[in-house]
Design goal:
- The complex is a heterodimer.
- By secondary structure, chain A is an all-alpha fold.
- Chain A has one domain.
- A two-stranded antiparallel sheet of chain A has the order 1-2.
- In chain A, helix 9 crosses helix 15.
- Helices cover about 40% and strands about 15% of the residues of chain B.
- In chain B, strands 3-2-1-4-5 form a 5-stranded parallel beta sheet.
- In chain B, helix 3 links the parallel strand 2 and strand 3.
- In chain B, helix 1 crosses helix 2 and helix 4 packs across helix 5.
- In chain B, about 45% of the residues are buried.
- The chains are: A mainly alpha, B alpha/beta.
- At the A-B interface, helix 1, helix 4 and helix 15 of A face helix 2, helix 4 and helix 5 of B.
- Chain A: Keywords: Membrane, Transmembrane, Transmembrane helix.
- Chain A: Pfam families: PAP2_3.
- Chain A: It is a multi-pass membrane protein.
Amino acid sequence: MSISVDEMPTPPSASERTPLRAVVPIDVLRPVRITLMFAYLAIYLWWLRFRGLPIDRISVAISVGIFLVCAFVGRSWRTWGVLLLDSMGYCVMWLAYERTRGAADEGISFFGLFRVKFPLQVESMRNIDRVLSFGYDPNVVLQHHFFHRGVVRWYDVVASTTYMTHFVVPIVVMAALWAVSHRQWARYMKRFATLLGAGCLLFVVLPTAPPWMVSKNYHLIGSIQRPINYLGFYHLGFKGFTNDYKVQLSNGNAVAAMPSLHASFALIVPLFFLPWIRPKWLKAIVLTFPLIMLTSLVYFGEHWIIDGLAGWALTFASFWFWGRMEQRTRRNRAGRARAVLEPVEPVLT
Amino acid sequence: MSLDPPKVLLEQSFLLALTNPLAARHDIAVTAYLELVDQYEREAVLLVAVSDHLRPWQPGRRHGVLAPVDVLHVGHQHRRVARRMVAEPDFDVALSLTMCERERVQRVATFDDRFRSYALDCMPD
């Protein structure tokens, strides 16, 4: 039986079509999730102002966990299961990082039989920095011109705030992506974990004395004041933050200067979101953040310039690698589909 | 604003036509799907299908024609919502509509005309 064109049912026009919201019952827990997330944000900001920002790994993990519980209320059990697995992977990643970073200055032990300890880099980074800075020591020069004991200038506040974002911003982004798009969270985490792993490897094979240590213990460069990275934050009234930070430092590795993960993390967030930022001027502004971070690190005497450049190089390498891998995965999957559907053309000889 | 590329749902009727060479609209499905696969490769779209509808192809799905397709996992809550949908008595259609609404899917590849009465961008034309 054939149907004439006149008899064919005409599809409803756009205005006649029923919106999905009109037929699909609403998700009653969605407003609950949104309310909880706003309540969390309000409490977080209150805590930040009056109690200080939690920055040690356990406090951060707990605060991220509470946020995720708020964001996942009413989601399916499967989603919760995936979240649990993700969280375990996240904890293992940080634990491995902390353990490796903390032990990196002691070298690598091979099954307890023998230990390989790599030589501490004291002069090499200073020499590279001198080449990059036309014979000057940039840490000393910056402190000489800008640091005034007992006085906190606006740039101290900017530098200190930028420095402290290292402990918060990458994790906040991680939590937000977790709640918004699991696919984007996985993309971010692959790059982030690669960066941490590569960073730890370099901490082991290239233990590097930071500028303040080279100044204080080896006297190879001029005098460097330290610690001054918290002064700007102290000035803003975030004392709780600073206390936590001091506690955290006691478990650190003083010769884990190369590469600078402060510089890496300051780049990873802008670089990740760059494809979604349309105006070029905004892209340029966003990319000044890692520059401010590196300048702050050098000013505080925490890192050499080359540490920051190596951190950026690692970040770019991680993005390049995973970009290629994801492209390859898409190409392979598309290829498998085409191989089944597209007829093989006969080869004429 | 979504961080992910727009999703295209491969509805059950489309999946059946695509994977069965003897189906009446197999050729139309293949032509439309190959175009979608090109877009997927350029990361212009994400191809998704409802887990219940993908079940027949689930073992080894990533190695065959549906390799580019991601799964929209159906939970009890989605089934409950689909059962409560009075406007759409067919459970499978109701489930697809539920998943479209919850996962913010705007485009649907389907041969089922019932989807054309909803505010969705249906294909093939």
